[in-house]
Automatic annotation (TrEMBL), chain B:
SMART domains: AHS2 (SM00797). It comes from Nocardioides conyzicola. This is Biotin-dependent carboxyltransferase family protein. Residues 137-162 are annotated as: Disordered. Transmembrane segments: none annotated.
Length: 197, 278
């Protein structure tokens, strides 16, 4: 693990991959490390709002990857597979529409980190050989609830926005509701399964 | 109950408090008043709690009519000093276009009492979490005053200085002298600056590594360098994660200046002294 200073009150911990980042962030929260923000990402965890970065760094150096899968909540997300990029993905995967649905719904994903928009979770777990490129040019508007792929990530748009992910289908699950106790349906660590409708 | 009727707004008026820290891992920007010391001063003058919500007014143009009398204070932009004013029922408060600076803050005794969202009344202009921006015709509820107005207070440093920076997490992605170069030449504030970032024009900072950075968490004040090589300083509504390397981080005490810089203004960076706390 490499630790980078970030100004006066933050530390960026660089780890091997998203799984390790989630592992470190989960450990840090349970160990109640003194940081206002603990932000896992693709290969890093940012600790921000830290009064004593030197002390924090010393604690982080004591962390070892647990090697265990996260034991977060399991959430089932119902999906109607009728997205505009189904044919593209079927071609990329060397299968047909039903093959895409079967492969996509067979994976138990893990919400590795959020970004891009409130409640937008980067879901890991897609086999690397099923990675697909983003659109050459993003769509001006992707409807809320759209389920898509980009690289090896799967994601669901919580709100309507521009976006360049390959869209497989849509869900009526509410991904983001600030009035709810847990505003994000899929916070980091959540295990996610897509159920074809 | 006292309320404020919004008769007119200028380019943009939002409700802001100290923001909603602690939710970056869910993709939620912290938001909060961009000139935090000016907002805090306005609250102190009218006897408010530091967490009370104020109005952040971009380039003036705000007109409010009080429904029920209340103490108000206006700070920020070109006002180094301010005092509490009694706004009688039916009277109108006008915030004129400032001659210098950008953002004015209007505090009212009791605070702007719109419903909080995720523990804060701040509007975040990236993802639009929080109350909607303030529009003409809006009626803003005011809370019950909790303290007494004060006439004397200490303003924040009214004069601008160079933005003090410390090393960022990806300084090694740039040429060895990149931080020196950042501090050696003045930059000019660009017209597309907003609550998300202070965008600059000026000399490009050459990168040593051209590969793509995986998205990572970003801090307030991060000096992010996109492929153009021209830096952007991340302000309160910045995205919680980003994919451009961060060369330096502006000291929090200096960020208020970014709220008051106009397009065309010159801005300089300088290294923060080690161990300095502000």
């Amino acid at each position: 693990m490499h630790l980078h200073p970030v100004g006066r009150s933050a530390v960026l911990a660089e780890v091997a991959d998203a799984a390790e980042a989630l592992d470190l962030a989960t450990w840090a929260r349970s160990a109640r490390v003194a940081a206002v923000e603990v932000v896992p990402a693709a290969r890093t965890v940012l600790f921000d709002g830290v009064d004593d970065p030197v002390a924090l760094a010393a604690r982080l150096r004591g962390w070892r990857p647990s090697g265990e899968l996260p034991a977060g909540d399991r959430v089932e997300v119902p999906v109607v597979y009728d997205g505009p990029d189904l044919a593209f993905v079927a071609e990329a995967w060397g299968t047909d529409r039903d093959g895409v649905v079967a492969r996509h719904a067979a994976v138990e994903y893990v919400a590795a980190f959020c970004g891009f928009a409130p409640g937008f979770s980067y879901l890991s777990g897609l086999p690397p050989e099923l990675a697909v490129p983003r659109l050459e040019s993003p769509r001006a508007r992707v409807p809320a609830g759209s389920v898509g792929l980009a690289g090896g990530w799967c994601g669901v748009y919580p709100t309507a926005s521009p976006g360049g992910w390959r869209l497989l289908g849509r869900t009526d699950a509410t991904l983001w509701d600030p009035e709810r106790d847990r505003p994000a349906l899929l916070p980091p660590g959540t295990r996610v399964v897509f159920v074809p409708r | 109950m006292t309320s404020l009727h919004v008769l007119a707004t200028g380019p943009m008026v939002t409700v802001q408090d100290r923001g909603r820290p602690g939710l970056a891992h869910l993709g939620v920007p912290r938001a909060g008043a961009l000139d935090a010391p000016a907002a805090a001063l306005a609250n102190r003058i009218v006897g408010n709690d530091p967490d009370a919500a104020v109005l952040e007014v971009v380039l003036g143009g705000l007109e409010l009519r009080a429904h029920g009398g209340c103490w108000v204070a206006v700070t920020g932009a070109d006002r180094a000093h301010a005092s509490a004013e009694w706004l009688a029922a039916g009277a109108t408060l006008r915030v004129p276009t400032p001659s210098t600076g950008v953002r004015s803050y209007v505090a009212v005794a009791g605070g702007i009492a719109v419903p909080p969202v995720l523990g804060s009344r701040s509007t975040d202009t990236l993802a639009w979490v929080g109350p909607p921006r303030v529009q003409p015709g809006a009626v803003l509820p005011v809370g019950d005053p909790t303290g007494s107005p004060r006439s004397v207070d200490t303003p924040r440093p009214p004069r601008r200085g160079p933005l003090r920076v410390r090393v960022g997490p990806r300084a090694d992605w740039f040429d060895d002298d990149a931080l020196d170069r950042l501090c050696a030449t003045p930059y000019v504030v660009s017209a597309d600056s907003n609550r998300i970032g202070l965008r600059l024009d000026g000399p490009a900072l050459p990168r040593r590594r051209q590969d793509e950075l995986a998205s990572e968490g970003m801090v307030l004040g991060a000096v992010q360098v996109p492929p153009s090589g021209v830096p952007i300083v991340f302000l309160a509504d910045h995205p919680p994660t980003g994919g451009y390397p961060v060369l330096a981080v502006v000291e929090e005490e200096d960020l208020w200046q970014c709220a008051q810089l106009r397009p065309g203004d010159e801005v300089r960076f300088t290294p923060a002294r080690a161990g300095s706390t502000g």
